[in-house]
Amino acid sequence: QVQLVESGGGLVQVGGSLRLSCAVTARTFSRYSMGWYRQAHGKERETVAALSGNGSNTYYTDSVKGRFTISRDNAKNTVYLQMNSLKAEDTAIYYCNASPAFGFWGQGTQVIVSS
């Protein structure tokens, strides 16, 4: 059974950085494209970034291009999101999931960017 465990969120000032991690229990992890998603208070969940199973293809939503980097370590069944130059509008709960997403979600990790 697949499990998704996100970590690394926290409180950071505008302009700061955070690195999110997601541990995935799945025997076929390397087969899945993986994504990071976020949901801000009162808003719909959106796809932030995605990465193919072998790491060769990436997607970023326009608002994070040049600031966020998605990566993965298939040996560790882990996907990362490096977030730099954080803005207040990046405040949200961040989730990882397959891309397209499985029919369930982990608990997410809260990111708060304060000015």
Sketch the topology as an H/E string, one letter per element.
EEEEEEEEEE
Question: In angstroms, what separates the terminal alpha carbons?
Answer: 40 Å
Total helix count?
Answer: 0
Q: How much helicity do the residues have?
A: under 10%
Describe the sheet with the most strands. 6 strands, mixed
Instruction: Tell me the Rg in angstroms.
Output: 13 Å
Share of β-strand residues? over 45%
Which outline best applies? Answer: globular
Mean pLDDT: 96
Tell me how many strands there are. Answer: 10
* Widest beta sheet: strand line-up: 2-10-9-4-5-6
| Stretches with pLDDT under 50, minimum 5 residues | none
Q: Which structural category fits the helices and strands?
A: mainly beta
How would you sum up this structure, described in words?
This protein is mostly beta strands. It has no helices and ten strands. The chain has strands at about 5, 10-15, 20-25, 35-40, 45-50, 60, 70-75, 80-85, 90-100, 110-115. It has a six-stranded mixed sheet with strand order 2-10-9-4-5-6, with no helix packed on it. A four-stranded antiparallel sheet has the order 1-3-8-7, with no helix packed on it.
